[in-house]
């Protein structure tokens, strides 16, 4: 469309030209456009002047941080060493994909010597995706003709780059999830399925058209707003999408937008799980059912070999603690001495069934996360019930009597202390990093309190026992499934169910 300038104009000067051209463009036809050259297209800093909001949000995102993350650096370095370099570009292919595309790194060990625009998941990498050829390990193919794809089909005439509509970059389509999902799903070198977010989503009702929701949908990882899509198209209002991509991980070193990221992640996680907590008058136990309401995939998800989600429950008689699980006494969580600990994480094993800590080493990964809102298949009630796992506290004999108050905390930690300690002990990670790793309490510190007065009577659907329940915020679930704790790892036979 536009003619490429044969001159190599200094970047700032070129932008000034574009700005002038844009002003002239308001209402006018035949605007001269200076197209961005390939160098600029690859550089997020070159997008900033016209897309300042997307730029600011992205610059604080985990996509921008993906190859800065000291835990990533530590793990990649150690995995390269352990595999004698056989790992190659496996990790950087997702964490710094442009550096791999341009042949600037064979292993991610030279990231510090690379220009900033080669690091992390950049604007260009996502917006140049032309096709998706598989479901995991970043099989994305980029356009070779400087095309930039997006959700709009009619960019203004003064746009200094190609702007082409693509279903892969339009969150209203199911295809868009396959773009994100291609990286958000990992099978390691041994074929162990160590990250399964895309696969998990495929089993939820969110993946079903016509009313599905995708990764970039507004309520999920790209909040929608309205406004002009660039500073040079201010007389056109469109639906825009936030580029901060909040979830669980947070920057642990100096990085832009840290407080914003934390606040957005906390907000996204707050109402994710709906707990039903009941005192069972027959067994004298507290029965807890978790339902994953708002995540379009399991809870926890993503790097599940590293994630730790667990339940802390404290029962009181007056001010005296009569029972507790999942608190300080349960630490360390892995192989905890706490007999009742409900811990959600992936257990990793080698071919001989021996437990492992690092996800690149594993032959098998077995998780026990709470599935997302599943597709209801009445021929297979198991799949539906499984998304309401139930656990009883204590697992052994009942409580001494009905408590006066029970406090529930749902904890989530981005990376387990045992994994972090192992990286520190082997000399790959600085000891200052582990305390900074993201930790959350879902719903806030005191929001899940049970008391006899605030609970309502229900009946256990299986035993008819009288229950006293609180439900946050709405539905009492009867179709439950016995939960599994991965506090202690034992290789289980593969699950034959779909
Ligand atoms: C000089 C200003 C300018 C610069 C620099 C710029 N863009 Fe744009 N961009 C625009 C305009 C104008 C539009 C069209 C907006 C409209 O039609 O309302 C646009 C649209 C887009 C779209 C949507 C395309 C579509 O069809 O859906 C994407 C994606 C995009 N830009 C990405 C980028 C990226 C990535 C960079 C940096 C490499 C960049 N832009 C640099 C001005 C710019
Ligand atoms: C090139 C591969 C790649 C693509 C494509 C990709 N991501 Fe990511 N994404 C990553 C990596 C790598 C990280 C992790 C960075 C880190 O935490 O160190 C990440 C992190 C995230 C996070 C934060 C996860 C957390 O737990 O904090 C979210 C949310 C996210 N991506 C959403 C998306 C969405 C939505 C899309 C599609 C529009 C997408 N990603 C496309 C590689 C990719
Ligand atoms: C992880 C992939 C990913 C990265 C990285 C990314 N974008 Fe986007 N971007 C998207 C997706 C997906 C959409 C469309 C969402 C939709 O239509 O629902 C989008 C939309 C846009 C749009 C159209 C307007 C809007 O907000 O929807 C512009 C402009 C844009 N991006 C610019 C940028 C710039 C500039 C950067 C880097 C600073 C960037 N993007 C980085 C995935 C990405
Ligand atoms: C297929 C793409 C892909 C590959 C390959 C990949 N990652 Fe990631 N990585 C991701 C994504 C996506 C996330 C964000 C997970 C989430 O949703 O929370 C992530 C998150 C991470 C994190 C931060 C979160 C955590 O809890 O650990 C680290 C560290 C990490 N990866 C290290 C590695 C290392 C080391 C390798 C190679 C052995 C690797 N990754 C290979 C895509 C990839």
Quick structural summary:
By secondary structure, this protein is of the alpha+beta class.
Chain-wise SSE layout:
Elements: H1 11-25, H2 38-41, H3 52-59, H4 62-65, H5 70-82, H6 92-95, H7 97-101, H8 123-127, E1 129-132, E2 140-142, E3 149-150, E4 164-165, H9 175-183, E5 186-187, E6 193-195, H10 197-202, E7 224-227, E8 238-241, H11 258-270, E9 273-280, E10 285-292, E11 308-317, E12 320-325, E13 343-344, E14 347-349, E15 355-356, E16 364-366, H12 381-385, E17 389-393, E18 405-413, H13 417-425, E19 439-441, E20 449-450, E21 456-459, E22 466-471, E23 481-482
Parallel strand pairs: 3-4, 17-23
Antiparallel strand pairs: 1-2, 5-6, 7-8, 9-10, 9-22, 10-17, 11-12, 11-13, 11-18, 14-15, 14-16, 18-19, 18-20, 21-22
Broad shape? globular
Number of helices: 13
If you compute it from the alpha carbons, what radius of gyration comes out, rounded to the nearest whole angstrom? 25 Å
Mean pLDDT: 91
Quick one: biggest sheet?
A: 6 strands, mixed
Secondary structural class: alpha+beta
End-to-end distance: 50 Å
Indicate the proportion of strand residues: 15-25%
